[in-house]
Each structure stands twice: as C-alpha cells, then as structure tokens.
Design goal:
The structure holds two protein chains of two kinds. Chain A is of the alpha/beta class. Chain A has seven helices and 17 strands. In chain A, about 25% of the residues lie in helices and about 30% in strands. Chain A has a six-stranded antiparallel beta barrel. Chain A has a five-stranded parallel beta sheet with strand order 3-2-1-4-7, sandwiched between helices. In chain A, strands 9-8-11-10 form a four-stranded mixed beta sheet, with no helix packed on it. Chain A starts with 6 loop residues before the first strand and ends in a 9-residue tail after the last strand. By secondary structure, chain B is α/β, with parallel strands linked by helices. Chain B is about 40% helix and about 15% strand. In chain B, helix 1 packs antiparallel against helix 7, helix 8 packs parallel to helix 12 and helix 9 crosses helix 12. Chain B is globular and about 70 Å long. The chains are: A alpha/beta, B alpha/beta. At the A-B interface, strand 2, strand 3, helix 3, helix 4 and strand 12 of A face helix 9 and helix 12 of B.
C-alpha cells in the first residue's frame, strides 16, 4: 500500500479480456462517469520467450510482439504506465520445459495452468509487485474471488461458458488475497461491448486458442528442440493387445486423441493409454475409454485443508467439459481417489481433475499416470 | 517533479535551439536546392549551419554531411567507405563495445565478404591503440572506434588510434555521438577521417545528425536520387534539423561554459556513483577516471536492471539499463560482456546519466530511491516460489 491506496498491477496480454480488466480496475466505464477508484494502476505485459524463428510475426497469440503493441496502446488510452516484464527464464523452465516433459512421461501437459501457477500468480506477484511497489495483481480471467469467515474462496465466473477456474484451482490463500478478477461477473459479449464503447483497439480481436509458444500448433518440433526427442516408431495396440498400426513416437500422442492415428478399424478409435517404457500407444473405441474412477496426485485445496477425508463434490477433467457428481477419498499424503456417478470420458494423465461444490472451486489434483500397463 | 537521469538516451530540446529552428519550420520553408528566393533563403540556413558545425570540430564546411542522426552517420561512414575502397581491400577493424549502428553495419558487410576484426577491450572498456596497430593489414580500409561509450561512458584514446591509422594510411571513423556534449573535438588533433554527430544528445532535435567526411575520402552514398550533400546523401535536406544541430552544438560547446558544466557534472556524478556503489553488491562499470563527466553506470547483484528502471520510474526517477532494450529483451549488454562482466551480473545493469537541469538534491533523492528499490527487489527475488508441484509420478503415494 502506498499512502493508504493500493497500487495494482494489471497483467495485460494484448487481448480484449485483459484490456477490459485493466479498464475496470482503472475505473473507466463506458457511461463516461469519472473513475470511482483512487487506486494506482500499472499495466504490465510479460515477455515469455524471445521473438525469433518463423511464425511469430503472423501469430495471434498473447506472446507476440504485436500483442505487446496492442497492450501498450490500450495502456496509453487508459492513461496508465506500461512496462514489459521479462519472464523468459521462469516461463522456459516452468511452462515450456514442463510441457515437453509431460509428453515424455506419457502425460498431457497443462501449460495454461502452469503459466497461472508459476508465472502470473508467482513470478508477476513476487517480482513484478516488488518492481512496481504494488500490492495486488489483476488479470482478465473469468473467475470470481470472495471471502467468507476469513477464508478466500475461488468461484466460477457468472458466464459459465467462459469460466476459467479449471486453470486457477492451484491458487493459494495468499495468492487469492492479492488477486483481482474484474471480469468475473461479465459475459464475453459484455466485455467486447465495453471494449468497443471505450474505443479499445483490442475490442474485436479474435480469441487466441492455440498454445502461445507452439507457433504452428505442432509441438513435435518443440520436443526435439527442448528435450532432443525425435520420436521412434512403435506399435499401436488395440484393447486386446493386438498390433493394429505403427505410431511415430509415443510422445506425439495424447490420451483421447482421435486424429492422426493412421488406423482404420471401421469405427472411431481413440488413444486410451500411452506407455513410455515400451514406446506403445493403446487405442480403444469411444466407450472403452470412459472411466468411473481414477487416481489423482498432487492434491491441493483452495482453502488449504480438505473439507473431509471423504466427501461428495463435482469434478471436471478438462476445460469446458461438463462436470459430474463424484465421491472423493483422500489417499496418502497427496493423492485422491475420484469415483464418478457416471463414466467420464478419457481422463488424461497430467490433466487436472478440478473439484467443485456448486460455484465454489475446492481445488483438485492431477490425474495420475497408470502404474500398471493394463487398463484399469 | 520528475528527475531525468537518462541524458545518454536523449535530452530535452533547449529553448534557444527551438528558437533558432522555428523560422525554418515557418517562414523559411523553401527547398534549399531551388533557384528562387524561397530556396535561397533556406539554403542560407543550411550553409550557415554547415559552417557552424564545421567550425566547432575544426573541419571545412564541405566536409560536413547532414544526416538523419547518429545511426545514419555511422552506417554511412562504415558502408560508404567500405564499398568505395573495396577494390583495394575488404578488411575493417572495430571494437566489441561499439554502438549497434556500427556493429550491425559491420555484420552486414561481413555477409558480403568483408573481414571484420572486433578488438577486445580491458575491464574498463578501453581499446588498446597497439592492438589497433597490430590488427591493421594491407587489406585494411577502415578503423572505427567510438570516442566515448554510450553505456559506460569510457573515453577511448582516439588521438592515439588516429595517429596509428594516419601512419598506416587507413581511414579512421569516430562515433562521437556521446562525446560531443562534453569533449572538445578537433578532427585534426584526433586525425580522424570520419566523425559521427547527433543533435538530440546535445539538447537538439531528434532526426538530425552529421557525418564529417575528410576531403578526399572516397564515399559511396547510402541514399540515391539527388545531388544533395555533394552526392553523399540524396534527399531534400532537413533544414530546420541542420539548423537545430548547429545551434545545439554551439550552445553546448561554448567555452568556458562547457568546462564549468563538466566540472559541475563530475562533482555530481562522483556523489551519485559513490552513493549507489555504497549499496552492497553494486559495482561501477566503465573506467574510474577516463569517463564522461555525466555518466554513472553500475551492475547490481540479484536484480534485473529492467525491473529496477520500472521501479524508479514509479518513484518519478527516469533511468536506463544502458543497453538497447527492445521489447523487454533480457540479452545482457554486449558492452558489459566485452568488459568481462558475467552475463548473470550484466543483467543487473543501471545507467544514470546527468544533464544540465540536475541538482545536488536530485542526486540525493536518487541515491535514496535506488537503495530502497534495490532492497525491495532483492527481497522479492529471495522469497520462496509458490509451492512446488511434484513431478508427475506413476501413482499416488498411498
């Protein structure tokens, strides 16, 4: 705090969401009312990797130099200072290398969650807040935070379509205490309308969908570049263990993947399991890869403590998938057993299993790799 | 009130310079190449500016080429001479601590088959004139060494290097962009054949500079399409810019005011550098004595220079990391690396460059703010990271 008022750092990606989040924190509203806040606001764009190689120029991602230009323009229009924070080292180790390593372990990486956990709500919070003398960080995430009985709660956004708590379940009490999500009560169309009314150049900018550090959407080159993994052909097995095809290297596949298998069995088949040790990819029909129970590691709870040793909740196992009722049992020091009321489709090792009680995000964990080479 | 300590980046346009330029932005708008009265009036301004600049460096007016600034002057000096002399030889000698306007132009020539020798420097950033002599071959056509470094302020022994080049009959280019506000320049004392100047480091306008080209130095132009500047730089002249350069240079170089201002700045700088290096883990960069009077540059352990500059900005102190900082790049400065500073340490660089309007109170305020911000940044860097996510394991540990 500086003289009783807050200094807030807004993480500006150059997209419409964080642009409007910045406007909301500044207190500028389209109705032309003067800002209601006296807080001091600083816009920060994070440089996550060097601008080099093919594809960066044309890319519509939050990490291109064009995005930095957009963020700067928005900051100028809002009349706030704008800085670039270089987070290349942390991003390279915590997001890009972790992304490659997950594939090499036969898991599906979760780079957006890693970026939140280690970059936006750690690197920016610690280093950025020190640099800018700020005490809070605001982002353009669709989620809400409130405080009940002295505990911070993470809540789904009112726009269920946009809710991003699936990527935020890792946040701790200390991180939530220093965080603002100004878009939590808005819908995406409302956000675009506010941006348009304020004349922000990012108002009509398309959504970035692909992974920001994989320019052409092909992560195979990245595995080779970061970890020397070129891929070695191996067998594709069906559920009975019969060889039905050849793959280009186990790390090129993810559980639930349908396309690019080169297998024609007369019905749609999906990757069911990846076995790094034997360089094997196992496939199955759609109904063969649903599961009603799975293990989770690295459990965390937003409140800090689990609510009970065994409790009822709802679980979501991928972004935008519907969540389903489940029973959760604590296992050992950091595990969970999740038993769902109905089968969930293709729980992918490495992906988050995020637990909810109504709108409240309770926490979650990572879906565990299978310990045995047979299907559960 | 904001304290501006980034005079090596640019300076505010001086009132008297603005006033000298104003007629050439209003009533004297003619094209200096025109035959008619309007053209002649503009031409007069250009000619007077050329005379003034020439006089200030001991040159002839015809040896001054007006350019768009220091970068163009450097580019023109290097490529202009290299291509003109390419039949005789294709070897250029420069140093590892030059401005990128020199280094990148040399790198471009390297791709066209020129050989470039990048001389190393000592721990203070000094080039050894004997190393220049040793590097010259019968194929060498140009030596380019700056008068003073833009990042650490180290002043090079240009007169000695000039004497080596003259003796060996090699053209000698000096980038004097940073030195011009402080050092008396005489192209004959220094025995230089080409010398770059920029107006906006002298309280003049941006987009205006000059290149001294000694008479008889063969030169191929970078810009084609007109006979302006004696065929060395095509394009209708920036008359107001040239007038601004001349006015700014004249005001800055006027003696004994310059010597007095240099003394004042040296005193302020010594206090500033002393105060900042009193912080543990802060080291001066550049030469202890042979440095520009306004330049205080340091490396600070345990912080990112860019973070400190942002922190100081929010305390209304404007500083720089010193290196060409493009969109948050964290490339350590080539100058600091060349001086043998470890890359990790070079990332914590801070450059404070004083100017006319700075006061002893500014210096005190700055020392306090740097001390406070460095402590805050170091505390944050030392704080533990968020709870470690365990590596993916095969199954929950039951």
């Amino acid at each position: 705090m500086i003289g009783g008022m807050s200094r807030i750092v807004v993480a500006m990606s150059g997209g419409v969401d964080s642009s409007v989040a910045a406007a909301m924190v500044v207190g500028i509203t389209p109705d032309g009312n003067p800002p209601e806040t006296t807080d001091e606001v600083v816009g920060v764009w994070m440089r996550t990797h060097p601008f080099s190689g093919e594809g960066w120029e044309a890319k519509r991602s939050c990490c291109s130099p064009d995005a930095a230009d957009d963020a700067r323009r928005v900051a100028q229009i809002l009349g706030i200072p704008f800085f670039i924070l270089n987070v290349e080292d942390a991003f390279g180790a915590r997001v890009i290398d972790a992304f490659a390593d997950a594939y090499l372990q036969g898991a599906t990486p979760n780079p957006c969650q890693a970026c939140n956990q280690y970059i936006k709500f750690d690197e920016l919070l610690r280093r950025g807040l020190a640099a800018y003398g700020a005490d809070q960080v605001a982002t353009g995430h669709y989620a809400r935070i409130d405080r009940v009985d002295g505990r911070w709660r993470l809540l789904r956004s009112l726009d269920a379509n946009k809710d991003q708590t699936y990527f935020l379940w890792v946040l701790t009490q200390a991180q939530l205490a220093a965080t603002r999500f100004p878009l939590g009560k808005l819908t995406k169309p409302q956000v675009r309308e506010i941006a348009a009314q304020l004349g922000l150049p990012t108002a009509a900018k398309p959504e970035s969908q692909e992974i920001c550090f994989v320019p052409a959407g092909d992560y195979r080159a990245l595995l080779e570049e970061r970890r020397g993994y070129a891929g070695k052909p191996g067998p594709i097995l069906d559920a009975n263990g019969a060889t039905v095809g050849t793959h280009t290297g186990y790390a090129h596949y993810t559980v639930g993947q349908r396309h690019g298998l080169g297998v024609a069995l007369g019905e749609a088949v999906y990757v069911r399991e990846i076995r790094p040790a034997s360089n094997t990819v196992v496939i199955g029909a759609r109904d063969e890869i649903a599961q009603s129970q799975f293990m989770v590691t690295d459990r965390r709870f937003v409140a800090g403590e689990p609510i009970a040793d065994r409790f009822e909740a709802r679980v979501r196992i991928r972004h935008r998938a519907p969540d389903v009722a489940c029973s959760v049992t604590l296992l050992g020091a950091d595990g969970l057993l999740v038993e769902t009321a109905e089968p969930v489709w293709a729980p992918a090792p490495g992906q988050a299993a995020v637990l909810y009680d109504g709108d409240e995000c309770l926490g979650g964990g990572r879906i565990a790799l299978r310990d045995a080479p047979t299907a559960a | 009130m904001t304290i501006y300590l980034d005079h090596a980046s640019t300076t505010a346009l001086a009132r008297e310079v603005f006033e000298a330029m104003l007629p050439y932005l209003s009533e004297h708008w003619g094209n200096p190449s025109s035959i008619h009265r309007s053209g002649r009036r503009a031409r007069q301004g250009l000619d007077e500016a050329r005379e003034a600049v020439a006089m200030l460096i001991g040159a002839k007016p015809r040896e001054i080429v007006f350019t768009s600034g220091g970068t163009e002057s450097d580019n023109l000096a290097i490529s202009g001479v290299a291509w003109a002399a390419s039949a005789r030889g294709r070897h250029i000698i420069t140093s590892a601590v030059e401005h990128k306007a020199v280094l990148q132009e040399c790198a471009l020539l390297e791709r066209h088959g020129f050989a470039i020798t990048y001389l190393g420097v000592d721990e203070h950033g000094l080039v050894d004139p004997e190393a220049v002599a040793a590097a010259i071959t019968d194929r060498t056509v140009l030596v380019s060494i700056m008068a003073a470094n833009n990042e650490v302020g180290t002043i090079q022994p240009v007169a000695e290097i000039g004497s080596v080049c003259r003796e060996r009959r090699v053209s000698f280019h000096v980038d004097a962009v940073q030195a011009a506000p402080f050092l008396p320049i005489d192209v004959n004392d220094w025995q230089v054949d080409l010398l770059s100047l920029s107006a906006h480091k002298l309280y003049g306008p941006k987009g205006s500079g000059a290149l001294f080209v000694r008479q008889g130095t063969p030169m191929v132009p970078l810009l084609q399409g007109g006979s302006q500047e004696r065929q060395r730089r095509a394009g209708t002249e920036n008359v107001a810019g040239a007038v601004g350069l001349a006015a700014a240079f004249a005001v800055t170089a006027e003696e004994p005011n310059r010597a007095g201002e240099n003394d004042r700045l040296t005193t302020l700088r010594n206090v500033l550098l002393g105060g900042v290096t009193a912080i543990p883990g802060v080291r001066r960069t550049g030469h202890p004595r042979l440095r520009l009077p306004n330049s205080a540059s340091v490396v600070i352990d345990g912080i990112e220079g860019g973070d400190l500059v942002a922190a100081l900005d929010l305390e209304e102190i404007e500083a720089s990391t010193g290196s060409a900082c493009t969109t948050g790049s964290m490339e350590p400065s080539h100058v600091l690396l060349a001086m043998g500073i470890e890359p990790e340490r070079a990332r914590g660089s801070l450059r404070l460059t004083l100017g006319r309007e700075n006061t002893p109170a500014d210096v005190e305020t700055t020392i306090e703010a740097v001390t406070r911000c460095v402590a805050r940044l170091r505390a944050a860097a030392a704080a533990p990271e968020a709870k470690e996510a365990p590596a993916m394991s095969g199954a929950p540990s039951v």
